[in-house]
Structure to design on (550 residues):
């Protein structure tokens, strides 16, 4: 398989994995909401007798590995933009090993995830810089420099947001970093969605209209 | 502040709103019925654009009346310390809480439908059906003009009554509750930014959903593009609105596992699903992928509706619902 083919597959499987994780957290959320609704209607004093606290513990325990996997999937999405076939797998593996190593050494999963996210953020900054500079290196599923820059910025925003959730919730840096992530996400989303309207020199690609197969 | 005068002024204001607003509420209900009739009977559809326009004008006029009501409310509803009598602030009740939620959602859908250009004729009937349902819900359930802001006015009435007792043991806790609601709920900038962004996204997602249904019905890819364009318009305010809710949640519910509260929980799920949909459509050229994309788009919208209803059904932060053991749903306000 050629380099582009491998990247496309990597892209696709990562997207499938991400969508499945998002879906599974979604199912858990829905089941949890239904359970609270049912318990509060049928079990007298459910909240006061510790039912709600137990529910929170169980929900957190089920969600934690899924969130960790989601953060890992988000981190793995980053190097695919920049590196070739061999380097892609190598860099992804290094990121995972450094993250897991930090987890073991520091004895804290949150610290491990934070380090992993910092590595992802650094690579993402390089991706965005190269994209803005117009270097041919970074590969995207979308077309157009503005769209690609937007996509790069919004993913950087999400990485920063994940970093806030994982590492900064009790820090004085929480709000400034959070607002930086919100601005990056907002501006990136706008650029990504509306590049055709924001661009000075517009190249209009018209998707041919067709009928989907039955 | 004289609680008796405040009470009289408030009562006059509510009566005036009812007098002005009752015909608007009635007309909106009639408009809902007509929208349904015109949308469902193909022969009459040529009148639908006119009816949609007229309904939107009525909604804008109604919103104007509500803006006036809230402005007067801001003048009248003050909070004063029972110890010193000093006014600590005025209540700036946002225009998208309680009885006004469905009205605002309907208004946004109506305005968006006016600006709808791509596949306008094909999307108008479906949009009209949803607008009619929102209007019916707003007039039959919400009563924004004849039964305005029941939770807020109930709490404020309780506060005024407690103040009139001149007994600090009664009036001080009521003052603390009202002042807390003022500072941390009604008057916060989050309340003036976070919900309207979400309602804008809900409006865009309605039209995106209608376009998706057209795609499923006809299998024509152009409808998918239209659905995507409306979905991206909805996704931007949804993302920014939800992100802005995050620091608010951290500060307001410090130490609580607020992310498992029904409404937050469902909202996060909705965002996940719309993210999955927008990622899924990048692979639309793959064989059979359109079915997954359509499925995700429809599921996302179903979850949007459930997310909205969660506020009224599942107790928790954000919620108006209190389920009593007998199974009746009562009303309360959790954030205050």
């Amino acid at each position: 398989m050629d380099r582009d083919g491998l990247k496309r597959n990597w892209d696709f499987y990562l997207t499938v994995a991400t969508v499945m994780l998002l879906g599974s957290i979604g199912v858990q959320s829905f089941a949890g909401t239904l359970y609270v609704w049912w318990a509060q209607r049928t079990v007298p004093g459910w909240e006061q007798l510790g039912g709600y606290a137990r529910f929170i513990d169980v929900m957190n325990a089920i969600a934690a590995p899924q969130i960790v996997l989601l953060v890992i999937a988000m981190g793995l999405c980053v190097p695919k933009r920049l590196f070739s076939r061999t380097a892609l797998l190598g860099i992804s593996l290094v990121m995972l090993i450094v993250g897991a190593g930090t987890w073991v050494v520091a004895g804290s999963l949150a610290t491990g995830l934070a380090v992993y996210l910092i590595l992802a953020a650094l690579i993402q900054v390089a991706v965005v810089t190269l994209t803005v500079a117009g270097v041919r290196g970074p590969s995207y599923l979308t077309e157009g420099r503005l769209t690609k820059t937007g996509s790069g910025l919004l993913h950087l925003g999400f990485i920063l947001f994940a970093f806030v959730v994982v590492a900064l919730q009790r820090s004085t840096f929480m709000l400034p970093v959070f607002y930086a992530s919100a601005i990056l996400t907002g501006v990136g989303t706008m650029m990504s969605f509306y590049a055709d309207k924001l661009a000075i020199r517009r190249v209009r690609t018209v998707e041919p209209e067709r009928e989907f197969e039955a | 502040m004289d609680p008796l005068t405040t009470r009289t002024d408030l009562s006059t204001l509510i009566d005036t709103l009812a007098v002005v607003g009752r015909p608007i509420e009635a007309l909106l209900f009639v408009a809902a019925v007509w929208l349904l009739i015109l949308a469902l009977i193909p022969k009459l559809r040529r009148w639908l654009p006119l009816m949609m326009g007229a309904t939107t004008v009525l909604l804008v006029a109604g919103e104007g009346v509500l803006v006036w009501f809230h402005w007067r409310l801001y003048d009248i509803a003050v909070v004063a310390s029972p110890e010193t009598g000093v006014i600590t602030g005025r209540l700036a009740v946002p225009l998208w809480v309680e009885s006004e939620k469905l009205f605002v959602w309907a208004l946004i859908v109506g305005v968006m439908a006016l600006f709808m250009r791509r596949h306008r004729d094909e999307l108008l009937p479906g949009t009209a059906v949803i607008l009619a349902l929102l209007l019916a819900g707003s007039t039959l359930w919400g009563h924004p003009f004849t039964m305005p802001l029941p939770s807020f006015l109930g709490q404020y009435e309780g506060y005024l009554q407690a103040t009139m007792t001149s007994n600090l043991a009664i009036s001080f806790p009521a003052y603390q509750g009202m002042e807390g609601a003022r500072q941390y709920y009604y008057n916060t900038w989050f309340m003036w930014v976070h919900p309207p962004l979400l309602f804008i996204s809900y409006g865009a997602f309605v039209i995106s959903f209608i376009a998706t249904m057209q795609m499923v019905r006809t299998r024509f890819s152009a409808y998918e593009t239209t659905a995507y364009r409306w979905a991206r318009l909805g996704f931007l305010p949804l993302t920014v609105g939800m992100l802005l809710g995050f620091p608010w949640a951290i500060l307001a519910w410090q130490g609580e596992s607020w992310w498992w509260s029904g409404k937050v929980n469902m909202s996060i799920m909705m965002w996940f699903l719309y993210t999955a949909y927008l990622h899924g459509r990048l692979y639309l050229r793959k064989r059979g992928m359109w079915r997954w994309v359509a499925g995700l788009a429809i599921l996302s919208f179903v979850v949007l509706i459930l997310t909205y209803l969660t506020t009224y059904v599942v107790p928790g932060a954000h919620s108006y619902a209190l389920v009593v053991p007998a199974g009746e749903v009562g009303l309360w306000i959790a954030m205050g």
The first strand of chain B starts at residue 78 and ends at 80. Strands of chain B lie at 78-80, 87-90, 321-323, 329-331. Chain B touches chain A through 47 residues (CB under 8 Å).
